[in-house]
Every structure is written in structure tokens, then in C-alpha cells.
Amino acid sequence: MVHRSRSILLSLVLILAVVAGCAAPGAAPAPGAPGGQGGTALIPVTYTYAGGGVPRDLQMVQDAINAILNESIGVNLTLEPIDWGAFNERMQLRLAAGEPCDIIFTAPWINSYTNNVANGALLPLDDLLKEHAPGLWASMPPTTWDAARINGVIYGVINQQIFPKPWGVHARKDLLEKYNFSLDNVKRWEDMEPWLEAVKNGEGITPVYADQGSYSLWRPQYYGYDPLDDGIRFVGIKADDETLTVVNLYETPEYIEAVNLTKRWVDLGYFPRELLPRDEARAAFRAGLFAMGYHVEKPGNDVEMQTAVGWEFVSKNLTDPLILDTAGATATMNAICATSRNPVAAMKVLEVLNTDPVVYNLLARGIEGVHWVWEDKANRVITYPEGVTSATSGYEPNTDWMFGNQFNAYYRSAAQVGAWEATKIMNDTAYPSQALGFVVDRKPIETEIAQLIAVMDELERPIAQGYIAYEVGAPELLARMNAAGAQKVIEEVQRQLLAWREANPR
Amino acid sequence: MTTGTMTPGAAKPQPHHGPLTRLFGGRRNLQTTLSLTLMALPGIIALLVFAYLPMVGLVIAFKNYRFADGLWGSAWVGFDNFRFLFGTDVAWRITRNTLLMNSIFIITGTVASLVIALLMNEVYTSWVSKYYQTLLFFPYFVSWVIVSYFVFGFLNAETGIVNQVITAFGGDPISWYREARYWPLILTFSHLWNSVGFGSIIYLAGILAIDPAYYEAAKIDGASKLQQVRYITLPLILPLIIILVLLSIGRIFNADFGLFYFVPRDNPQLYPTTDVIDTFVYRSLVRLGNISMAAAAGFYQSVVGFVLVLLANWFVRRINRDYALF
Questions:
Q1: Does CATH number 3.40.50.720 belong to domain B81-145+184-323?
Q2: Is A91 at the interface with chain B, CB within 8 A?
Q3: Contact between A18 and B284 using a beta-carbon 8 Å cutoff
Q4: Cβ separation of B157 and A273 shorter than 8 Å?
Q5: Domains and CATH numbers, chain A
Q6: What does pLDDT average to in each consecutive run of 10 residues of chain B (326 residues)?
Q7: Given phi > 0 = left and psi -120 to 50 = alpha, else beta, which region is A189?
């Protein structure tokens, strides 16, 4: 009897050990709980965004920001950068699981804004904005805010930065000089070819940067199109088409021109034959294995790219006219999760980030004297402290446009001075697409979109990447897309677009 | 779980006891079974928590799951979420790839592991045998992410070793990551490289357990090495082979996600031969951001997988009842 009860006791102990083991993680202190801040009743707010890993000095920067926020709005902010490669997946899983979060970065191209709204993951912000962020609300005209509206409701705070997409090139300055080439006469992609040929032969490298997420010369706005929804990819209208005729972009002459040129560049050895993940491709750029990139060449992008990959660049916008579309105006946003426990405090943080240059620059640039020093305070120009570079700095997110109003950012070098004013002019003078403010409701065509994405991933990408000629790949692509419901999607988007125009006459 | 039946006499119910006592088959057995049951309890709880509790999530496949409304608040939509699977040929393709690749893995894996185990059995010097075992076993611990970089180092179109060899012999370089047809071979090879050491050790253990008297008798009768293998070793480890093969057939609808996702570098052009159900479910989730559709694909996997296990077991029962799992 004795040994039996002992064995029962033993099993009970074992069970308890297991149960306790399971329970332990839940008992851990909630994230964002103020640790040793000393203040009473500080409201915890988290901010989750994408970055290149966790910066070494993140805690230091967070403490410096909190030193201000604790005082001014009684908030304790926790910064949660997630690596670029994992951000989208991690956010989708977190939101799906209903894990509490406060401020999150969302965009048409990553952690999809429309998807998040459709899933009810984001909080409506109209009232919060007007009540608790008057400065932020007043910083942009109502027409800009309209771009963030879905069914009339604002769910995301637009970061002021470049709104149109000035697709263009940034080329390494040393190689431009070495091969005696100037960007002054470059008007289109193909004008770069003589220099690319010289660099390829002279340096023995594939000159044009590409990675797994960015690989084609097909950029709708460069070719005059408004791609109504980044997530659907293949529908769009000519930005100046007053009849708002929705087309399959993959059948347009401009698309064919773009992918043919891409193929030409692959065949000539200007584009790499194997695409690397973003981090590795960037490391290769830093190591000098690429000579040129092509991207949104907003004012000051040369300096931003120099911070990213270390080389001195000359950049030029090749998109003319500039087109302002919904996706551009909402290209980067911060939103508040529906699960947020402190939405008011979160909105107050967004107000500070967008209106207070000191806090904003703490987040975007780091701490004065540690991560940067003044070079020319009158012009708001900073530089690295003695012995620090972009590669060795303990805090260098290089994503001003993610954290708030970029026009509040300190300039990285004298060369960048005036970039924000120039950007603002671009924003104000870009041609507003006929469909500016229109957002596709994907619900009725969800199944078709899911099927189409699978087809496009497989068949469109190799064409866009220039590995399969358009004439060879397009018949199968278009046939499979039609079988997967491309026509139904085009018709539905067309119907929504016309109904939207009816309700919002220009 | 069924500890109650282990004690003889447990079948007789004794109605005048309390419900708990009755559950465990009477007072006499309560003493024995309770402690055994308690010892099994952590395992049972783990099984419930990790295998049965998540099944509640299956309802997501039939709902329009909105994060805000939660599991029970979201609206029912019937089979709508399954439409994207069967609207195109994607369901057929991922099913075919999963079954075909796993069948190849089972056959090649079993044969290769057996051969290696047989060879290893002939190595008499103990440290040499250990050396080979360790060497073969080591890849089992290498993450697929790392393996994907090894493979990329070999097959990279521009700087890959394989293409350099091909061009050195005057051939044309091959864009390995753009030609789907090579990938069944590459994946099979990667899988073998990874798993053969593990499999061979299990078979070796089985072989070592065979009574040496059989071999001595065979030697006296003048049997050659091959004959010994054919008439002694193989028949005696056949039950082990069958059990291991059956177990892997039971999992034939679960593809090794790491292998199929990382080694082909999630390259869409390779999907025709490398896209399996697990990778498809994962991509549906992260790329479409639609949990309901991903859940539908996962549900489809479970159903077909369940049917396959039943079929495999039925098949084995027909051949030999004793070898069937149930």
C-alpha cells in the first residue's frame, strides 16, 4: 500500500511539473510593462515595424524616447523591429492569432493594409485622429487622407514622404566617372546601356541590382499606369484615362516593352541570372558586385542608398509625368491594432512621431553625440560622429519614411539639403490618377485572386524577370489566367471603379 | 490509456462502487490502474493539447475568418474556401507532388538505408564502423536552411560548382533553379543525404539483434555472404522493414516542409515539381493573408491523408494480418 501511494504521489508530482512547465510562459510579465521607469501608471504602447534586424543600441534609443514620452504624454513606448524577411509573415500570424499590439507598420506592399482592414485587424481612426492628434490631422489636406479611406473610414496614418513613384536609376558615382558617363542625357532605362556595357566588360560584374522581391523593369507608373491594387497586380488603368477602362496589364504594349527590355538586359548580362534574398543582394551591392540600382528615385535617394550600401551614388528620376495613385499616397502607413488596449495613448504617440522632430529623429536617426552629430545645425544637417560609419553605427534604421513625417527628418549630408522641399513639390505637382482615392474591395473576387496569384507567381514572374521571352511565355500565362478567372476580376474591378466614380465625381 | 484492460478480471463491473471506481474496473483494480493512469496522464494531456485541441480550428476552413470577430463570431460560408483549391488544377498538382515525392523517398530511403546497414554490418573494426556511422548520421542534424545554401553553392547558375564542371567539359550551363524537371532528382538526393544515416542505424540495430548462431550454421553449410543476406538477414528483419515502411506511409501526406520550401528556395518556376501541400498551405497563409483558405487547404490535406492511412493499412491487412497497424 505504501509504495503504491508513493508512486501515485510521484505521478502527481510529475503532472504538476508538466503543468507548471506549460504555465510558466504565460506567467511572464506582459511585454511593454514599464521596467524600473519609476513613474506611476505609465501606459504601455508597443510599436512594431520592419527593419534590418535589431539594432545594437535599440534599448538606448528607446530609453531616450521614453524619457520624453513619460513626461509629455505618460506613455512608455516599446519598439519592436522585425527583420524585413520575416515581417510580413510574422505580422499576418500575429494579427490572425489576435495577439494584442498597438502601433503597427502597414502598407499596400507589405503587411497588406487592405487585407488587414478586410480582416478587421485595424482600428477605425477618424475620431481618434481628430480628438487626440490634431497636429497630425492638420498636417495633410483631406484629399490626402481620402487615399487611406476604405469604405469611407480611415484605418491608417499616412506617413508624409514621396507620394508619386519617380522610378529611375541610382548609379555608382565612381564608376560613372571612371567610364566617363553622365546621367544628364538619360531619359529612359535603355539610355543606360552604353555605360552598363562598359561596366560589365571593365569590372567583370553584372551591373544592375536585383533581388527576389525587386527584379523587373516593369514599373506601372513609369509606363503611365495606375495599378489599382498592388495585391492583384495585373489590373490597372491608364492614369489619364477618363473612361476608367480597366485592362489586363500583361496584355498592354507597355508591359511587353518592359519585359522585352528586361530580357535583353538579362541576355546581355546586365541583370543577374540568379536572384538573391534582399539581405544577401544588398550585401553584394555593398561588396561592389553591382553598379546600379533602379528604384523610387525621390529627392535625396542617392544619400539614402549610400547609407544603405556604402557607395556614393548619382540618382535620377526617369518617370515623366509623375503619377499620384492611391497606392503611392498610402505607400507607408502606421495603424493601430483592433486588439490595442490603449488606442488613445497609441494615437498620442503617432501625434508626437509626426509632429515632434526631436522624438521623430531619435527614432529615425538615433541619439545626438552617439549616432550622429550636427554638421550644420541651421540647415538641420547631421553627420556621423568621429569613427562611426553607416555600417558600424549602433543605430541606423535608414527608414525615415516608416516612422512618421519624413519632412521632419534631419538631412544626412549637405547634399540632401532641400530634398524634403523638393519632395513636397513633387507630391503637389504630380498628375493625380483618375482613380486616385479608389480602393478595390477584394471580397467578391477573393477566390479568383487567390487562384490568380498562384498562376502569376509561377508564370508571370519568369517573364517579368526576363528569363522567358514574352512571346514564349505569354500565351500560357494568359490562358491560365483566364481559366483562373481573370475576366471576372477585371469586370468586378471595373464595376466597383465606375460605381466609385458615380459616388465621387471628379 | 487502456491500462484498465491490462489486469485480468477487469471486465466484471461492480455497480455498487462510485463512478470513478467503476471507470477503472472496480476497487481492486483502481489501486493498480490509478497510478498507471496517472503516470500516463502527462502524455495523454500533451496528446489532447497538441493533437486534439487544435482540431477545433478546423472550423475556420468553413468560415469567413475575420481576426476581429474571432473563431466563433466569424460567419459560416460552407465550402466557399475550398473553391480556390479546385478552381484550377492546383489541388491535383500538390497532391500528386506530395504522394509521388514521398513514395520515391520511402522506396529509395529504405533501399539505401538497408544496403548501408548490411555493409556496415560487415565492418568488423569497431572504430571504423563508428566512424562511418557518425559520418552518415551527421547530415541528419543539419538544418534545411543550411542545406539550401549548400545546394545553392552547387547549382547556382553563375558561380555554381556543377555548372563550372559542365562548362569545363564543354557542355552548356544549366539554369537549375529555372528547370522544374531536374528537381525530383535533386530533392531525392537531398533527402537521402539527410536521412540515410538515421535509417541505416535502425536497420543495423535490427541486424545486430539476429542470433549469430544462424550465420555460424550457414557458414558451416558453405553459404556465401550474399546467400546469408538473402536467406537469413533479410527475412529476419522483414517485420522491422514493414513496420518502418508502414509508419512512413502513414505520414505520406505530410511533406517535409523544410526540404520542399528551403532547398528549392521557394522558387515559383519550380512549383510544378516541388510544390507540396505543406508549402502550398504555408504560402496561402502568408501570401494571401487569408487564414480561411489556408485552413481549407490544410483540411483537405488531413482528409486525404486519413483516407490514405486507412487504405495502406487495409492493403497490408490483405497481405498479412499480423503486419497491419490496426
A1: no
A2: no
A3: no
A4: yes
A5: 43-162+329-358 (3.40.190.10), 167-328 (3.40.190.10), 443-503 (no CATH)
A6: 42 53 62 84 93 88 84 86 84 91 94 93 84 90 92 87 90 88 94 92 92 92 91 91 82 88 89 91 79 88 84 79 73
A7: alpha
